[in-house]
Predict the structure.
Amino acid sequence: MKAYPAMPLILAGVFLVSLPASAQTKVGLLNVERILRDSPTAQQAQVRLREEFAVRDQELAKTAAQLKSMQTRLENNALTMSDSERRTREREFSEANQAFQRQQRTFNEDANKRREEELGGMNDRMTRAVKQVAESEKFDIIFREVAWGNPRLDITDKVIKLIDESRPAAP
């Protein structure tokens, strides 16, 4: 079955058009990207992630610089080395490069896993906040990630405020 990314918008449009003219539909818009960028809770999560992975990131940068230096020395001295020494140095470089790539993959996997954990908690709080705003202000439908919408329909600031009020105290 082929996926149609615009289908939710089309269905929402059909829903809105099919309502009787006398019925008022209250619509809200939510900018998830702005929540993840501007919410103090999301910003704190990003700081925690940076701090958690800073040492390993610096170690990888140091290893990358060492590999670049090793490669440069190999290229510059290749013509003056004996064949056996050149092969030995190339093998050492290849092995070091493979080890670096493994470390980098592991780092990326670990960082992505932690990012997903942090965003999962953030997504749960965001969903509860959206539901709270929708129920308290009697919205009929709230859209996420629209191409454009009238700013008066945007509930993002209200959701950010609720997310930040509900966050647990920092340890």
